[in-house]
Amino acid sequence: MTLYILFSSLYFLVFPFTNPGLTNETTKVNPDVWKNHLRSDSFIDISNTQFYTNENRLERLNENNNYILILKNTRGCADCFKSINNYIRNLKSPGNIRTALISLVDSTSLERKRNFYFNKKLMPDIDEYLFQFITSDDQTLFEQFKTKYTPEIILVKSGNIIHIPYPEIFEFPSLEISTATSKKVNEFLK
Amino acid sequence: MKQPNKTNCRRSLPAFCIILLLSSICSGQDHTELYCIAGKKYTTGKNSISESFSSYISPPVVYYITDEDWNAESRDLSLNMINTESGKKDSFILHIPTTIIINELPDISLNSDYLILTDDEQFSLYRFKKSGKQFNFVNEIKLPEKCSGKNVKYLSKNKFLLYCFYNFHPSDNTYNSNLGIYDAEKDSIIRFIHPEMPCIGFSHFPKEWLTNNDNTIALASPCGYKIDFYNFNLELKGSINPQTSEIKNYRSIDKISFETSPDFIHPKLLIEKMLLLKDTVSRIEKIYFVNNSTLLVSSTGKDLGNDQRRIDLWDIDHKLKPVFCNAKNRIEVPVNDTLDPEHLPIPINSCDDLEIKNNIIYAFNNEDYISDKKIKMSDFLQLKNQYYETNDPIYSIQQFILPRIPVH
Protein backbone atom coordinates (compact mmCIF):
# COMPACT_ATOMS: atom_id res chain seq x y z
CA MET A 1 0.00 0.00 0.00
CA THR A 2 2.74 2.42 1.03
CA LEU A 3 4.74 1.54 -2.05
CA TYR A 4 1.69 1.98 -4.23
CA ILE A 5 1.05 5.45 -2.83
CA LEU A 6 4.71 6.32 -3.22
CA PHE A 7 4.92 5.15 -6.82
CA SER A 8 1.60 6.67 -7.83
CA SER A 9 2.38 10.00 -6.26
CA LEU A 10 5.82 10.12 -7.81
CA TYR A 11 4.69 9.29 -11.29
CA PHE A 12 1.46 11.21 -11.22
CA LEU A 13 3.17 14.32 -10.04
CA VAL A 14 6.05 14.55 -12.42
CA PHE A 15 5.95 15.45 -16.05
CA PRO A 16 5.99 12.46 -18.42
CA PHE A 17 8.93 11.73 -20.67
CA THR A 18 9.73 9.25 -23.36
CA ASN A 19 11.67 6.25 -22.22
CA PRO A 20 14.30 5.27 -24.76
CA GLY A 21 14.48 1.83 -23.19
CA LEU A 22 11.03 0.88 -24.44
CA THR A 23 10.72 -1.05 -27.69
CA ASN A 24 9.06 0.75 -30.51
CA GLU A 25 7.16 -2.18 -31.97
CA THR A 26 4.34 -0.45 -33.82
CA THR A 27 6.66 1.38 -36.16
CA LYS A 28 6.92 -1.88 -38.08
CA VAL A 29 3.23 -1.68 -38.90
CA ASN A 30 1.74 -0.16 -42.02
CA PRO A 31 -0.87 2.02 -40.33
CA ASP A 32 -2.91 2.64 -43.48
CA VAL A 33 -4.55 -0.70 -43.99
CA TRP A 34 -6.10 -2.44 -41.04
CA LYS A 35 -6.06 -5.78 -42.83
CA ASN A 36 -2.32 -5.61 -43.10
CA HIS A 37 -1.92 -5.13 -39.43
CA LEU A 38 -1.04 -8.79 -39.00
CA ARG A 39 2.13 -8.14 -37.16
CA SER A 40 4.16 -9.22 -34.18
CA ASP A 41 1.33 -8.57 -31.70
CA SER A 42 -1.22 -10.52 -33.67
CA PHE A 43 -0.13 -13.79 -32.18
CA ILE A 44 -1.10 -12.51 -28.76
CA ASP A 45 -4.51 -13.92 -28.08
CA ILE A 46 -6.46 -11.95 -25.52
CA SER A 47 -9.84 -13.54 -26.16
CA ASN A 48 -9.46 -15.65 -23.02
CA THR A 49 -7.83 -12.97 -20.93
CA GLN A 50 -9.72 -12.45 -17.70
CA PHE A 51 -10.62 -9.15 -16.15
CA TYR A 52 -12.33 -8.23 -12.92
CA THR A 53 -15.09 -5.69 -12.53
CA ASN A 54 -15.39 -3.29 -9.59
CA GLU A 55 -17.74 -5.87 -8.04
CA ASN A 56 -14.96 -8.47 -8.37
CA ARG A 57 -16.87 -10.34 -11.10
CA LEU A 58 -14.81 -12.15 -13.73
CA GLU A 59 -15.25 -10.93 -17.29
CA ARG A 60 -13.81 -11.54 -20.73
CA LEU A 61 -13.94 -9.21 -23.70
CA ASN A 62 -17.08 -9.68 -25.77
CA GLU A 63 -15.94 -11.12 -29.10
CA ASN A 64 -18.75 -9.30 -30.92
CA ASN A 65 -17.32 -5.95 -29.89
CA ASN A 66 -14.20 -4.09 -30.89
CA TYR A 67 -12.28 -2.42 -28.14
CA ILE A 68 -10.03 0.47 -27.35
CA LEU A 69 -8.23 -0.69 -24.22
CA ILE A 70 -6.17 1.72 -22.16
CA LEU A 71 -3.63 0.17 -19.81
CA LYS A 72 -2.88 1.81 -16.47
CA ASN A 73 -0.36 0.73 -13.89
CA THR A 74 1.22 2.67 -11.03
CA ARG A 75 3.87 4.12 -13.35
CA GLY A 76 1.84 6.63 -15.26
CA CYS A 77 1.05 10.30 -15.45
CA ALA A 78 -2.41 11.65 -14.66
CA ASP A 79 -2.35 14.27 -17.41
CA CYS A 80 -1.61 11.60 -20.03
CA PHE A 81 -4.81 9.75 -19.11
CA LYS A 82 -6.79 12.99 -19.15
CA SER A 83 -5.49 13.73 -22.63
CA ILE A 84 -6.59 10.31 -23.90
CA ASN A 85 -9.98 10.76 -22.24
CA ASN A 86 -10.49 14.06 -24.09
CA TYR A 87 -9.44 12.41 -27.34
CA ILE A 88 -11.89 9.52 -26.83
CA ARG A 89 -14.70 11.90 -25.93
CA ASN A 90 -14.38 13.55 -29.33
CA LEU A 91 -14.15 10.32 -31.33
CA LYS A 92 -17.09 9.56 -33.55
CA SER A 93 -17.05 5.81 -33.09
CA PRO A 94 -19.43 3.15 -34.36
CA GLY A 95 -21.68 1.59 -31.73
CA ASN A 96 -19.86 -1.70 -31.45
CA ILE A 97 -16.65 -0.12 -30.22
CA ARG A 98 -16.22 -0.16 -26.49
CA THR A 99 -13.59 1.69 -24.48
CA ALA A 100 -12.17 0.14 -21.34
CA LEU A 101 -9.57 1.24 -18.83
CA ILE A 102 -7.61 -1.76 -17.56
CA SER A 103 -5.89 -1.09 -14.24
CA LEU A 104 -3.23 -3.31 -12.77
CA VAL A 105 -3.82 -3.32 -9.02
CA ASP A 106 -3.29 -5.17 -5.81
CA SER A 107 -6.01 -7.82 -5.48
CA THR A 108 -7.56 -6.45 -2.28
CA SER A 109 -11.13 -5.19 -2.29
CA LEU A 110 -10.09 -1.81 -0.92
CA GLU A 111 -7.42 -1.25 -3.53
CA ARG A 112 -9.85 -2.15 -6.32
CA LYS A 113 -12.57 0.14 -4.95
CA ARG A 114 -10.21 3.08 -4.47
CA ASN A 115 -8.87 2.64 -8.00
CA PHE A 116 -12.38 2.47 -9.42
CA TYR A 117 -13.30 5.75 -7.72
CA PHE A 118 -10.10 7.42 -8.91
CA ASN A 119 -10.33 6.04 -12.48
CA LYS A 120 -13.87 7.31 -12.97
CA LYS A 121 -12.70 10.80 -12.05
CA LEU A 122 -9.60 10.53 -14.19
CA MET A 123 -11.31 9.18 -17.34
CA PRO A 124 -15.05 9.88 -17.06
CA ASP A 125 -15.77 9.13 -20.74
CA ILE A 126 -14.69 5.48 -20.66
CA ASP A 127 -17.34 2.73 -21.00
CA GLU A 128 -15.85 0.13 -18.68
CA TYR A 129 -13.41 0.13 -15.79
CA LEU A 130 -11.77 -3.27 -15.43
CA PHE A 131 -8.94 -4.68 -13.35
CA GLN A 132 -6.16 -7.18 -13.49
CA PHE A 133 -4.31 -8.22 -10.37
CA ILE A 134 -0.59 -7.95 -9.80
CA THR A 135 -0.56 -11.25 -7.91
CA SER A 136 -2.65 -13.09 -10.50
CA ASP A 137 -1.58 -16.59 -11.53
CA ASP A 138 -2.68 -15.84 -15.09
CA GLN A 139 -0.56 -13.70 -17.34
CA THR A 140 -1.82 -10.11 -17.38
CA LEU A 141 -1.98 -7.85 -20.43
CA PHE A 142 0.82 -5.86 -18.81
CA GLU A 143 3.05 -8.93 -18.87
CA GLN A 144 1.93 -9.95 -22.33
CA PHE A 145 2.78 -6.55 -23.76
CA LYS A 146 5.80 -5.95 -21.48
CA THR A 147 4.27 -2.71 -20.28
CA LYS A 148 6.50 -0.52 -18.12
CA TYR A 149 5.03 2.94 -18.32
CA THR A 150 1.41 3.82 -18.90
CA PRO A 151 -0.89 4.79 -20.51
CA GLU A 152 -0.63 2.32 -23.35
CA ILE A 153 -3.36 1.64 -25.90
CA ILE A 154 -4.49 -1.69 -27.32
CA LEU A 155 -6.88 -1.72 -30.26
CA VAL A 156 -8.80 -4.98 -30.61
CA LYS A 157 -10.73 -5.62 -33.80
CA SER A 158 -11.99 -8.97 -35.06
CA GLY A 159 -9.38 -10.78 -33.03
CA ASN A 160 -6.54 -8.64 -34.36
CA ILE A 161 -4.54 -6.47 -32.02
CA ILE A 162 -2.56 -3.27 -32.32
CA HIS A 163 -0.46 -2.27 -29.37
CA ILE A 164 0.52 1.39 -29.10
CA PRO A 165 3.20 1.75 -26.44
CA TYR A 166 3.58 4.79 -24.24
CA PRO A 167 6.38 6.55 -26.18
CA GLU A 168 4.24 6.58 -29.35
CA ILE A 169 0.95 7.84 -28.02
CA PHE A 170 1.80 11.51 -27.57
CA GLU A 171 3.52 14.26 -29.50
CA PHE A 172 6.09 14.71 -26.72
CA PRO A 173 6.83 17.01 -25.03
CA SER A 174 3.21 18.02 -25.61
CA LEU A 175 0.50 15.63 -24.48
CA GLU A 176 -1.42 15.95 -27.75
CA ILE A 177 -2.22 12.55 -29.29
CA SER A 178 0.42 11.88 -31.95
CA THR A 179 -0.42 11.81 -35.66
CA ALA A 180 0.68 8.17 -35.90
CA THR A 181 -1.65 7.16 -33.07
CA SER A 182 -4.55 9.13 -34.56
CA LYS A 183 -4.02 7.39 -37.90
CA LYS A 184 -4.13 3.97 -36.31
CA VAL A 185 -7.24 4.77 -34.33
CA ASN A 186 -8.99 6.26 -37.36
CA GLU A 187 -8.26 3.15 -39.41
CA PHE A 188 -9.52 1.08 -36.54
CA LEU A 189 -12.78 3.00 -36.45
CA LYS A 190 -13.50 2.43 -40.16
CA MET B 1 35.62 -42.16 33.55
CA LYS B 2 35.87 -39.21 35.90
CA GLN B 3 32.51 -37.94 37.15
CA PRO B 4 31.86 -34.23 37.19
CA ASN B 5 32.25 -32.66 40.62
CA LYS B 6 28.72 -31.68 41.66
CA THR B 7 29.97 -29.22 44.29
CA ASN B 8 32.00 -27.33 41.70
CA CYS B 9 29.01 -27.28 39.40
CA ARG B 10 26.87 -25.75 42.11
CA ARG B 11 29.54 -23.14 42.88
CA SER B 12 29.91 -22.11 39.24
CA LEU B 13 26.17 -21.95 38.62
CA PRO B 14 25.59 -18.44 40.11
CA ALA B 15 28.54 -17.03 38.15
CA PHE B 16 27.24 -18.65 34.97
CA CYS B 17 23.79 -17.17 35.59
CA ILE B 18 25.26 -13.69 36.09
CA ILE B 19 27.21 -13.98 32.83
CA LEU B 20 24.09 -15.22 31.07
CA LEU B 21 22.05 -12.33 32.48
CA LEU B 22 24.66 -9.75 31.51
CA SER B 23 24.97 -11.11 28.02
CA SER B 24 21.20 -11.09 27.59
CA ILE B 25 21.04 -7.43 28.71
CA CYS B 26 23.75 -6.48 26.23
CA SER B 27 22.23 -8.33 23.35
CA GLY B 28 18.81 -7.16 24.51
CA GLN B 29 19.73 -3.60 23.64
CA ASP B 30 20.12 -4.62 20.03
CA HIS B 31 17.20 -6.96 19.71
CA THR B 32 14.39 -5.74 21.96
CA GLU B 33 11.52 -4.55 19.83
CA LEU B 34 10.12 -1.13 20.58
CA TYR B 35 6.43 -1.85 20.47
CA CYS B 36 3.26 0.03 21.32
CA ILE B 37 -0.19 -0.83 22.58
CA ALA B 38 -3.42 -0.17 20.73
CA GLY B 39 -5.38 2.58 22.50
CA LYS B 40 -8.69 4.31 21.94
CA LYS B 41 -10.23 4.44 18.48
CA TYR B 42 -12.53 7.12 17.06
CA THR B 43 -14.50 6.97 13.88
CA THR B 44 -15.23 10.13 11.93
CA GLY B 45 -18.16 8.64 10.04
CA LYS B 46 -16.77 10.12 6.81
CA ASN B 47 -16.21 7.95 3.74
CA SER B 48 -12.53 7.65 2.80
CA ILE B 49 -12.81 5.95 -0.59
CA SER B 50 -11.20 8.98 -2.25
CA GLU B 51 -8.30 9.09 0.26
CA SER B 52 -8.48 12.84 -0.11
CA PHE B 53 -8.23 14.51 3.26
CA SER B 54 -6.33 17.08 5.22
CA SER B 55 -5.63 16.66 8.92
CA TYR B 56 -3.86 18.58 11.64
CA ILE B 57 -3.04 16.81 14.89
CA SER B 58 -2.51 19.03 17.91
CA PRO B 59 -2.63 16.42 20.71
CA PRO B 60 -5.07 15.62 22.17
CA VAL B 61 -7.14 17.41 19.50
CA VAL B 62 -7.37 16.22 15.90
CA TYR B 63 -8.71 18.49 13.15
CA TYR B 64 -9.60 17.14 9.73
CA ILE B 65 -11.26 18.01 6.43
CA THR B 66 -12.56 15.47 3.91
CA ASP B 67 -13.98 15.72 0.38
CA GLU B 68 -17.48 15.95 1.83
CA ASP B 69 -16.53 19.08 3.76
CA TRP B 70 -15.76 21.31 0.78
CA ASN B 71 -18.71 23.01 -0.91
CA ALA B 72 -17.35 24.44 -4.16
CA GLU B 73 -20.52 26.46 -4.81
CA SER B 74 -20.84 28.27 -1.50
CA ARG B 75 -17.03 28.07 -1.03
CA ASP B 76 -17.55 27.01 2.55
CA LEU B 77 -15.10 24.57 4.07
CA SER B 78 -16.12 22.65 7.21
CA LEU B 79 -13.32 21.97 9.63
CA ASN B 80 -14.04 19.00 11.91
CA MET B 81 -12.56 18.53 15.36
CA ILE B 82 -12.34 15.62 17.78
CA ASN B 83 -10.90 16.02 21.27
CA THR B 84 -9.54 12.57 22.05
CA GLU B 85 -9.43 13.28 25.80
CA SER B 86 -12.98 14.47 26.30
CA GLY B 87 -14.50 12.80 23.24
CA LYS B 88 -16.02 16.17 22.28
CA LYS B 89 -16.68 16.73 18.58
CA ASP B 90 -17.13 20.12 16.97
CA SER B 91 -16.92 21.81 13.59
CA PHE B 92 -16.02 25.25 12.27
CA ILE B 93 -16.67 27.02 8.98
CA LEU B 94 -14.08 28.72 6.80
CA HIS B 95 -15.42 30.85 3.99
CA ILE B 96 -12.81 30.69 1.23
CA PRO B 97 -12.55 33.80 -1.00
CA THR B 98 -12.45 33.21 -4.75
CA THR B 99 -8.87 34.47 -4.87
CA ILE B 100 -7.76 31.23 -3.19
CA ILE B 101 -7.61 28.32 -5.63
CA ILE B 102 -8.94 25.07 -4.20
CA ASN B 103 -8.33 22.11 -6.51
CA GLU B 104 -7.23 19.74 -3.78
CA LEU B 105 -8.05 20.03 -0.10
CA PRO B 106 -5.80 22.65 1.48
CA ASP B 107 -3.41 22.00 4.36
CA ILE B 108 -4.24 23.66 7.65
CA SER B 109 -2.57 24.51 10.93
CA LEU B 110 -4.20 26.35 13.80
CA ASN B 111 -4.27 27.46 17.40
CA SER B 112 -7.19 28.82 19.38
CA ASP B 113 -7.13 32.20 17.55
CA TYR B 114 -5.61 31.79 14.11
CA LEU B 115 -5.65 29.31 11.26
CA ILE B 116 -3.05 29.18 8.48
CA LEU B 117 -4.25 27.63 5.24
CA THR B 118 -1.89 26.45 2.47
CA ASP B 119 -3.37 26.08 -0.99
CA ASP B 120 -2.33 23.03 -2.95
CA GLU B 121 -1.80 24.93 -6.20
CA GLN B 122 0.73 27.67 -5.45
CA PHE B 123 1.59 26.67 -1.87
CA SER B 124 0.58 30.19 -0.83
CA LEU B 125 -0.25 30.79 2.81
CA TYR B 126 -3.39 32.54 4.05
CA ARG B 127 -4.25 33.82 7.52
CA PHE B 128 -7.71 33.31 9.03
CA LYS B 129 -8.89 34.61 12.41
CA LYS B 130 -11.34 32.80 14.62
CA SER B 131 -14.66 34.39 15.47
CA GLY B 132 -17.12 32.11 17.26
CA LYS B 133 -17.68 29.02 15.13
CA GLN B 134 -16.02 30.57 12.09
CA PHE B 135 -12.55 31.32 10.84
CA ASN B 136 -12.61 34.50 8.75
CA PHE B 137 -10.11 35.24 6.00
CA VAL B 138 -7.74 38.10 6.91
CA ASN B 139 -4.87 38.19 4.40
CA GLU B 140 -2.33 36.31 2.34
CA ILE B 141 0.96 35.85 4.19
CA LYS B 142 3.88 37.40 2.35
CA LEU B 143 7.00 35.27 2.48
CA PRO B 144 10.53 36.49 1.75
CA GLU B 145 11.62 36.12 -1.86
CA LYS B 146 12.46 32.55 -3.03
CA CYS B 147 11.21 31.09 0.27
CA SER B 148 8.57 28.41 0.72
CA GLY B 149 6.60 27.63 3.86
CA LYS B 150 4.39 24.93 2.47
CA ASN B 151 4.24 23.06 5.79
CA VAL B 152 3.03 24.83 8.90
CA LYS B 153 3.02 23.83 12.58
CA TYR B 154 1.81 25.78 15.56
CA LEU B 155 4.57 26.43 18.12
CA SER B 156 3.38 28.77 20.90
CA LYS B 157 2.04 32.30 21.60
CA ASN B 158 0.58 32.75 18.09
CA LYS B 159 3.90 31.74 16.53
CA PHE B 160 3.83 29.25 13.69
CA LEU B 161 6.72 27.30 12.23
CA LEU B 162 6.86 27.41 8.41
CA TYR B 163 9.05 24.83 6.67
CA CYS B 164 9.68 23.18 3.37
CA PHE B 165 12.49 20.79 2.40
CA TYR B 166 12.05 19.79 -1.20
CA ASN B 167 14.12 19.09 -4.27
CA PHE B 168 12.56 21.80 -6.44
CA HIS B 169 12.88 21.67 -10.21
CA PRO B 170 16.07 23.35 -11.47
CA SER B 171 14.00 26.00 -13.24
CA ASP B 172 12.36 26.92 -9.93
CA ASN B 173 14.56 29.26 -7.92
CA THR B 174 12.89 28.48 -4.57
CA TYR B 175 15.30 27.45 -1.79
CA ASN B 176 15.40 23.68 -1.25
CA SER B 177 15.62 24.18 2.49
CA ASN B 178 13.32 26.60 4.32
CA LEU B 179 12.65 27.12 8.00
CA GLY B 180 10.81 30.19 9.26
CA ILE B 181 8.90 31.60 12.21
CA TYR B 182 5.70 33.54 11.61
CA ASP B 183 3.83 35.59 14.17
CA ALA B 184 0.14 35.33 13.28
CA GLU B 185 -0.93 38.10 15.63
CA LYS B 186 1.48 40.65 14.16
CA ASP B 187 1.35 39.12 10.68
CA SER B 188 5.12 39.21 10.44
CA ILE B 189 7.91 36.80 9.58
CA ILE B 190 10.25 36.79 12.55
CA ARG B 191 13.07 34.84 10.96
CA PHE B 192 13.72 32.69 7.92
CA ILE B 193 16.79 30.42 7.58
CA HIS B 194 17.99 27.86 5.05
CA PRO B 195 19.80 25.04 6.88
CA GLU B 196 22.18 22.95 4.82
CA MET B 197 20.29 19.85 3.62
CA PRO B 198 22.54 17.49 1.65
CA CYS B 199 21.00 14.67 -0.44
CA ILE B 200 17.80 16.70 -0.80
CA GLY B 201 16.76 14.24 -3.56
CA PHE B 202 15.45 11.98 -0.79
CA SER B 203 12.67 14.55 -0.33
CA HIS B 204 10.80 12.67 -3.07
CA PHE B 205 10.28 9.76 -0.65
CA PRO B 206 8.22 9.56 2.55
CA LYS B 207 9.93 11.62 5.22
CA GLU B 208 9.47 13.46 8.51
CA TRP B 209 12.69 15.35 9.01
CA LEU B 210 11.25 17.94 11.38
CA THR B 211 9.58 17.62 14.75
CA ASN B 212 9.07 19.87 17.75
CA ASN B 213 8.23 19.59 21.43
CA ASP B 214 7.20 22.40 23.80
CA ASN B 215 10.45 24.35 23.40
CA THR B 216 12.70 22.72 20.80
CA ILE B 217 12.65 22.10 17.05
CA ALA B 218 14.63 19.08 15.80
CA LEU B 219 15.74 18.87 12.16
CA ALA B 220 17.33 15.75 10.68
CA SER B 221 19.76 15.77 7.80
CA PRO B 222 18.49 13.79 4.76
CA CYS B 223 21.67 11.69 4.77
CA GLY B 224 24.29 10.90 7.37
CA TYR B 225 23.25 10.72 11.01
CA LYS B 226 22.90 14.32 12.13
CA ILE B 227 20.08 16.09 13.95
CA ASP B 228 20.19 19.79 14.80
CA PHE B 229 18.18 21.37 17.60
CA TYR B 230 16.83 24.93 17.41
CA ASN B 231 14.95 27.08 19.88
CA PHE B 232 11.76 28.88 18.81
CA ASN B 233 13.86 31.81 17.55
CA LEU B 234 15.63 29.41 15.18
CA GLU B 235 18.92 29.68 17.06
CA LEU B 236 20.97 26.49 16.93
CA LYS B 237 21.08 24.93 20.41
CA GLY B 238 23.02 21.74 19.72
CA SER B 239 23.24 18.64 17.60
CA ILE B 240 23.23 14.89 17.70
CA ASN B 241 26.20 13.93 15.62
CA PRO B 242 27.35 10.64 17.10
CA GLN B 243 30.93 9.50 16.73
CA THR B 244 30.42 5.93 17.96
CA SER B 245 32.07 3.35 15.73
CA GLU B 246 28.72 1.83 14.81
CA ILE B 247 27.15 5.08 13.65
CA LYS B 248 30.40 6.20 12.05
CA ASN B 249 30.25 3.08 9.89
CA TYR B 250 26.58 3.67 9.31
CA ARG B 251 27.45 7.12 8.13
CA SER B 252 30.15 6.02 5.75
CA ILE B 253 27.75 3.88 3.73
CA ASP B 254 25.50 6.88 3.24
CA LYS B 255 27.52 8.21 0.36
CA ILE B 256 25.33 8.38 -2.68
CA SER B 257 27.13 7.32 -5.81
CA PHE B 258 25.60 9.93 -8.08
CA GLU B 259 24.78 13.62 -8.17
CA THR B 260 21.61 14.54 -6.26
CA SER B 261 21.61 18.30 -6.56
CA PRO B 262 18.75 19.62 -8.70
CA ASP B 263 21.27 22.05 -10.20
CA PHE B 264 22.90 19.15 -12.00
CA ILE B 265 20.30 16.41 -12.46
CA HIS B 266 16.69 16.58 -13.64
CA PRO B 267 14.33 15.64 -10.76
CA LYS B 268 12.62 12.93 -12.81
CA LEU B 269 15.91 11.19 -13.62
CA LEU B 270 16.93 11.58 -10.00
CA ILE B 271 13.75 9.85 -8.84
CA GLU B 272 14.42 6.96 -11.24
CA LYS B 273 17.92 6.54 -9.84
CA MET B 274 16.88 7.00 -6.25
CA LEU B 275 14.11 4.42 -6.45
CA LEU B 276 16.82 1.82 -7.03
CA LEU B 277 18.73 3.17 -4.05
CA LYS B 278 15.85 3.78 -1.67
CA ASP B 279 16.13 0.75 0.59
CA THR B 280 19.86 0.19 0.31
CA VAL B 281 21.11 3.42 1.86
CA SER B 282 21.15 4.05 5.60
CA ARG B 283 19.59 7.41 6.27
CA ILE B 284 17.28 9.06 8.74
CA GLU B 285 13.78 8.80 7.36
CA LYS B 286 11.62 10.11 10.21
CA ILE B 287 12.04 11.74 13.60
CA TYR B 288 9.46 12.37 16.32
CA PHE B 289 9.65 13.86 19.78
CA VAL B 290 8.08 11.15 21.93
CA ASN B 291 7.93 13.56 24.89
CA ASN B 292 9.82 16.71 25.94
CA SER B 293 13.06 14.82 26.58
CA THR B 294 13.04 11.87 24.19
CA LEU B 295 13.52 11.87 20.45
CA LEU B 296 12.68 8.83 18.33
CA VAL B 297 14.82 8.43 15.21
CA SER B 298 13.77 5.97 12.54
CA SER B 299 16.24 5.21 9.78
CA THR B 300 16.21 3.04 6.70
CA GLY B 301 19.15 0.78 6.12
CA LYS B 302 20.79 -1.77 3.95
CA ASP B 303 18.68 -4.91 3.59
CA LEU B 304 16.08 -3.72 6.10
CA GLY B 305 13.33 -3.61 3.48
CA ASN B 306 9.96 -2.00 4.02
CA ASP B 307 9.02 -3.72 7.26
CA GLN B 308 12.05 -2.91 9.41
CA ARG B 309 13.82 0.23 10.54
CA ARG B 310 16.70 1.06 12.82
CA ILE B 311 15.02 2.74 15.81
CA ASP B 312 17.01 4.91 18.21
CA LEU B 313 15.67 6.79 21.21
CA TRP B 314 17.75 9.75 22.33
CA ASP B 315 17.64 11.65 25.58
CA ILE B 316 18.16 15.13 24.12
CA ASP B 317 20.21 16.18 27.15
CA HIS B 318 22.66 13.30 26.67
CA LYS B 319 23.62 13.34 23.03
CA LEU B 320 26.56 10.94 23.06
CA LYS B 321 24.69 7.71 22.54
CA PRO B 322 21.06 6.64 22.30
CA VAL B 323 19.26 5.32 25.37
CA PHE B 324 17.62 2.68 23.22
CA CYS B 325 18.65 1.19 19.94
CA ASN B 326 17.34 -1.61 17.79
CA ALA B 327 19.08 -1.95 14.45
CA LYS B 328 16.30 -4.17 13.08
CA ASN B 329 13.06 -3.01 14.65
CA ARG B 330 9.87 -4.25 13.02
CA ILE B 331 7.50 -1.53 11.91
CA GLU B 332 5.10 -3.90 10.16
CA VAL B 333 3.69 -7.25 11.24
CA PRO B 334 4.81 -10.00 8.84
CA VAL B 335 1.91 -11.91 7.24
CA ASN B 336 2.76 -15.15 9.08
CA ASP B 337 3.04 -13.49 12.50
CA THR B 338 0.33 -12.70 15.00
CA LEU B 339 -1.18 -9.26 15.25
CA ASP B 340 -1.22 -8.51 18.96
CA PRO B 341 -2.94 -5.23 20.01
CA GLU B 342 -0.66 -5.12 23.07
CA HIS B 343 2.59 -5.53 21.16
CA LEU B 344 2.15 -3.59 17.94
CA PRO B 345 4.98 -2.28 15.78
CA ILE B 346 5.31 1.51 15.89
CA PRO B 347 2.92 2.56 13.09
CA ILE B 348 5.33 5.03 11.51
CA ASN B 349 4.77 3.73 8.00
CA SER B 350 1.18 2.59 8.08
CA CYS B 351 -0.56 5.75 9.32
CA ASP B 352 -1.48 8.64 7.08
CA ASP B 353 -0.78 11.38 9.60
CA LEU B 354 0.87 10.89 12.95
CA GLU B 355 1.95 12.95 15.95
CA ILE B 356 3.39 11.82 19.27
CA LYS B 357 2.99 13.61 22.58
CA ASN B 358 3.71 12.32 26.09
CA ASN B 359 4.31 8.82 24.74
CA ILE B 360 0.91 8.65 23.04
CA ILE B 361 0.80 8.30 19.27
CA TYR B 362 -2.16 10.03 17.62
CA ALA B 363 -2.81 8.65 14.14
CA PHE B 364 -5.24 9.75 11.46
CA ASN B 365 -6.07 6.87 9.13
CA ASN B 366 -8.05 6.39 5.97
CA GLU B 367 -9.08 2.91 7.08
CA ASP B 368 -11.28 1.98 10.02
CA TYR B 369 -10.88 -1.80 10.12
CA ILE B 370 -8.67 -2.47 13.14
CA SER B 371 -8.26 -5.67 15.13
CA ASP B 372 -8.72 -5.44 18.89
CA LYS B 373 -7.83 -9.07 19.59
CA LYS B 374 -4.87 -11.33 18.91
CA ILE B 375 -5.13 -12.72 15.40
CA LYS B 376 -2.80 -14.10 12.79
CA MET B 377 -1.91 -11.33 10.37
CA SER B 378 -2.88 -13.41 7.33
CA ASP B 379 -6.34 -14.01 8.87
CA PHE B 380 -6.65 -10.32 9.68
CA LEU B 381 -5.91 -9.38 6.07
CA GLN B 382 -8.46 -11.90 4.84
CA LEU B 383 -11.14 -10.60 7.22
CA LYS B 384 -10.33 -7.02 6.27
CA ASN B 385 -10.63 -7.88 2.61
CA GLN B 386 -14.03 -9.47 3.16
CA TYR B 387 -15.16 -6.50 5.24
CA TYR B 388 -14.32 -3.99 2.53
CA GLU B 389 -16.08 -6.02 -0.17
CA THR B 390 -19.33 -4.91 1.42
CA ASN B 391 -18.34 -1.79 3.39
CA ASP B 392 -16.76 1.47 2.39
CA PRO B 393 -13.71 2.63 4.33
CA ILE B 394 -14.16 5.39 6.92
CA TYR B 395 -11.56 7.86 8.21
CA SER B 396 -10.60 7.03 11.77
CA ILE B 397 -8.34 8.25 14.54
CA GLN B 398 -6.47 5.86 16.78
CA GLN B 399 -4.21 6.24 19.76
CA PHE B 400 -1.23 3.98 20.43
CA ILE B 401 0.75 4.01 23.65
CA LEU B 402 4.53 3.81 23.58
CA PRO B 403 6.22 2.27 26.63
CA ARG B 404 8.35 4.65 28.71
CA ILE B 405 11.97 3.79 28.13
CA PRO B 406 14.13 4.56 31.20
CA VAL B 407 16.42 7.52 30.51
CA HIS B 408 19.71 7.80 32.40
Question: Which tags fit this structure?
Answer:
heterodimer, A: 190 residues, alpha/beta, Glutaredoxin, five-stranded mixed sheet, two-stranded antiparallel sheet, 6 helices, 7 strands, globular, disordered N terminus, B: 408 residues, mainly beta, nine-stranded mixed sheet, five-stranded antiparallel sheet, 4 helices, 28 strands
Helix content of chain A: 25-40%
Using only CA atoms, what is the Rg of chain B?
Answer: 24 Å
Low-confidence stretches of chain B: 1-30
Q: Quick one: which chains have the greatest interface?
A: A-B, 16 and 22 residues
Task: Write the H/E string of chain A, N to C.
Answer: HEEEHEHEHEEHH
Average pLDDT, all residues of chain A: 79
CATH superfamily of chain A: Glutaredoxin
- Count the DSSP helices of chain A: 6
Taking all residues together, what is the mean pLDDT of chain B?
87
Count of folded domains of chain A: 1
Biggest sheet architecture of chain A? 5 strands, mixed
Residue fraction in strands of chain B: 35-45%
Count of DSSP helices of chain B? 4
Shape field of chain A: globular
Reported CATH architecture of chain A: 3-Layer(aba) Sandwich
Strand content of chain A: 15-25%
What does this structure look like?
The complex is a heterodimer of chains A (190) and B (408). With 190 residues, chain A is an alpha/beta fold. Chain A has one domain (47-189): 3-Layer(aba) Sandwich (Glutaredoxin). Chain A has helices at residues 2-13, 78-89, 109-122, 141-144, 166-169, 179-189, and strands at residues 51-52, 58-59, 66-72, 97-105, 128-133, 152-157, 160-164. In chain A, helix 3 links the parallel strand 4 and strand 5 (128-133). Chain B has 408 residues and is mainly beta. In chain B, the strands form six sheets. In chain B, strands 2, 3, 4, 5, 6, 7, 8, 9 and 10 form a nine-stranded mixed β-sheet that branches. In chain B, strand 17 (227-230) and strand 18 form a beta hairpin. Chain B is globular. The N and C termini of chain B lie far apart (52 Å). The relative contact order of chain B is 0.14. Chain A binds chain B through residues 1-3, 6, 10, 14-15, 17, 56, 108-110, 113-114, 117-118, and chain B through 49-51, 204-206, 267-268, 271, 275, 306, 349-350, 367, 381, 384-386, 388-389, 392-393.
